[in-house]
Amino acid sequence: MALTKDRKTPYREGIEQDFPVKGLTKIYAGSLVCVSGAGGFAIPAADAAGNIFVGVALEQVDNSAGGDGDKKVKVRRTGVFEFNASSITQAMVGDIMYIVDDETFDETSPGNSVFCGRLVKYESATRGWIDISLAVPVALAAGGALTITDAGGFFPVHTVEDALQKLGQDSQSAQYLIRPSLLRLESGAAIPAYNAGVADGYVQLANKNMGLQWNTSATPGDIMAQFLIPPDLDDAKDLVVHLQGGIVKAGAGEVDSPVFTIEAYFDVPGAAPGADNDCGGESAEFSAAVGANLQEKTLTIAAADVPAAPAVLTLVLHPKDGELGTDDFLLSGLWLEGSRKLLAA
Questions:
Q1: Whole-prediction pTM value?
Q2: Beta strand pairing status for 96-101 and 104-106?
Q3: Is residue 343 part of a domain?
């Protein structure tokens, strides 16, 4: 309850602090110390998920035969200390350092970014002095005490680290859809209206949805689709072509089960027009067994064939020759799916 009179509050400098030691653990005097993410007991510093750096041990404590918290270790939480380093240089003075083990630090995290201070004096490539004064409060905050308000309720948890992880995951989501910027006949002419038995083209279904319909033919005509590759597309990942469509029956039931033949060509600055080799292929099969229902099929363009932006992708596609001899085919959707990358500038 709130105070109604003065309070005599215990006080300490906080330079030294006792921490209960994890069971079956031995901590050496002069070593770097963490508390574990699971339980919060003192352990020898290590690069492990959830570990939080708390300081330098002032004494040896052997709790190797005890349980969690049976013994305590006194830790100094501020000051400048000399420790081993993995590989540092004079130019790194002032840089953040990370835990490697209980007597070693490095400017590069081995994997879990357990912050232990800043390099303030370089002795050699494998030895230096670190100031832990800033590291302890920052490490404790990074362990979960630093929170965000999140008034909009966008994050399931409210620590800064968890929010950053979600933002990073969302920004690189595989659900990155790219739609065609241009559609044309292979001749370059505009796509006409569909005319049964005469011309492939756009059609409106039952005065509702729009699609692109091919007439039955042994050699269906080609459609060109152009896509502008955005600067944040991750060219180290596969690019997937998606087709949504269905078979339009000519008789009592659907007969044909075509795949799509898809040619794929990239244009990039510095290359001659039309210099790229075809990196397309065939989609999965649109099955007559599904009936008139729409189906989604894909073709994967391997990451090795995907250039960095700026680039333009042209697809040339049609139902495979010899596979649309009875029915028509309706294409209701065409898009690319890729992964984002974080841009440095």
A1: 0.59
A2: antiparallel
A3: no
